[in-house]
Amino acid sequence: MSIDQHGDARLEGMSLRGLPKVSLHDHLDGGVRPDTIVELADAAGVDLPVDDGDDLADWFAEKGDSGSLVEYLKTFDLTIGVMQTRENLTRVAREFVEDLAADGVIYGEVRWAPEQHLAGGLSLDDVVDAVQEGIEEGEDAAEAAGRDIRVGQLISGMRQTERVRELAELAVSWRGRGVVGFDIAGPEDGYLPALHRDAFDYLAREFFPTTVHAGEAAGLDSIRSALLDGRALRLGHGVRLASDLNVIERSGEEVMVQFGDLARWVRDREITLELSPSSNLQTGAIEAWGTAIEDHPFDLLYQLGFSVTVNVDNRTMSRTSLTRELSLLVDAFGYDLGDLEAFQLNAAAGAFLPVEEREELIELIAAGFGA
């Protein structure tokens, strides 16, 4: 399958871009339009390696394809640099939602770390309010263009800092006003969720949902801590959970697998895996299995009944979209529309929404795929 000049592909006669999608793992500072960065850079005092939007998109793609999460994260200096004023935050959030809607997303959760956007003198509440304003403007613009989309914020605390509890309290204070959940992000290896047990205890007492970056740059201990210390309802990536599966025998399409206790727990409790195929390849998260999308343990996890979802992680750094990610999986594993629908239904079931709204989302997905 190939992507056309409009970023679309077709499967069984249906446009992949036109399919209703749910995006659970999508970073705001990882989805800034390169043209917008170029336009805002001078006033923001950000030095760019190139001064053209297309060339900057190429630069992000090249630097993002490093095989290292640490190197991958360095590219965010440019995007975060232009996101330090209210006006810029609102614009970036608005364009982010418009891009989601153009990709066929009907429900999305955008994650970002407010503490990284205070250099211009704004407070934590100021930046959350600015992003929320942009989200609502983007939703209105999408509606005017004939597309329906709803987007909620996931507040991320940076796991290498001392402000995670403060950010958890910020997230809870914005419940019902646009914020739907909490996350910790940043360098995973060496910073177990257990370091922030106090913040997660607080969130649990407030019955506030959490997803935790785990199993991307670190292994099973990180995932275990996300579940036990972070009370994670979803795993941000979680791809290295596959190392708790021992493939005993392969015979054609049949695979005999021995489950570790951790993998069985995640599978049996339907804990959502926020997998991001292109990003997982770029950051080296799947290096234990290979160096191509075909080597990604996505299909193994799917066939074994895990609640797998498809995500972009960072649209700009990975130069991707949900449409493209689905197309890559179709090419790699021969999926049909039924498989793609299953991924969206998993994402809808894992969304941080009340059950009635998740059921409505599931109905919209079923109707869109059945059209």
From TrEMBL:
<keyword id="KW-0479">Metal-binding</keyword>
<keyword id="KW-0378">Hydrolase</keyword>
<dbReference type="InterPro" id="IPR032466">
    <property type="entry name" value="Metal_Hydrolase"/>
</dbReference>
<comment type="similarity">
    <text>Belongs to the metallo-dependent hydrolases superfamily. Adenosine and AMP deaminases family.</text>
</comment>
<dbReference type="GO" id="GO:0043103">
    <property type="term" value="P:hypoxanthine salvage"/>
</dbReference>
<feature type="domain" description="Adenosine deaminase">
    <location>
        <begin position="20"/>
        <end position="366"/>
    </location>
</feature>
<keyword id="KW-0862">Zinc</keyword>
<protein>
    <recommendedName>
        <fullName>adenosine deaminase</fullName>
        <ecNumber>3.5.4.4</ecNumber>
    </recommendedName>
</protein>
<dbReference type="Pfam" id="PF00962">
    <property type="entry name" value="A_deaminase"/>
</dbReference>
<dbReference type="InterPro" id="IPR001365">
    <property type="entry name" value="A_deaminase_dom"/>
</dbReference>
<dbReference type="GO" id="GO:0005829">
    <property type="term" value="C:cytosol"/>
</dbReference>
<dbReference type="GO" id="GO:0006154">
    <property type="term" value="P:adenosine catabolic process"/>
</dbReference>
<dbReference type="InterPro" id="IPR006330">
    <property type="entry name" value="Ado/ade_deaminase"/>
</dbReference>
<dbReference type="GO" id="GO:0004000">
    <property type="term" value="F:adenosine deaminase activity"/>
</dbReference>
<dbReference type="GO" id="GO:0046103">
    <property type="term" value="P:inosine biosynthetic process"/>
</dbReference>
<dbReference type="GO" id="GO:0046872">
    <property type="term" value="F:metal ion binding"/>
</dbReference>
